[in-house]
């Protein structure tokens, strides 16, 4: 995936981010030595000054749900931190558009977050069907490769759930949920990032007289000052 000229992603506010995988960005797009990511605003014809968003490295890390590169040591952001870029490689749905997406630029953390959907990150995808005594129940038609399912909590209207079926969430710009998660909870009245409700790591289960159960594991739910790991559970009925 390392490319001689690198890659470019942008948001809808004229922010452009040039980056490469495990290597430097072309110096014509990022003056300076060793940058794995470089940002600028404006247009291709009239860009603003370029800013290093982290030094390149080839230290690919694994965590449940995704792989990632973390480029640190870019230009100074504020008195306490320099710019960095966090690139997550995600095994998305079968027909998801592959490539990098600029999800969020966190001005407090001085970090750009990029989600990169690629089959190269796929060890395996879970089956999206379950066999009963009499038939096979196949939920794969419910898998979304664009957009996500959105559900408002009927008892807490400021809470919204985002989810996909058997696969990770598709890109949501400026919504920095944990990469690779299949369900997230956003509370418009709270401060902080959305809560990851789990990854699609366990196959479907059929419970007699209750229907199909889908469980996403290793999610994070915060209770007061303590953070615990829990699973998100979804029941599907006819």
TrEMBL record:
GO annotation (BP), single: lysosomal transport
Primary localization class, coarse: membrane
InterPro entries linked to this entry: CIMR_rpt, Man6P_isomerase_rcpt-bd_dom_sf, MRH_dom
Cellular compartments annotated: Endomembrane system
Keyword Calcium: no
GO cellular component, one term: Golgi membrane
Annotated ranges, domain MRH: 1-124
Alphabetic keyword roster: Disulfide bond, Membrane, Signal, Transmembrane, Transmembrane helix, Transport
rRNA processing among keywords: no
One example GO MF annotation: D-mannose binding
Name of the molecule in the record: MRH domain-containing protein
Organism: Petrolisthes manimaculis
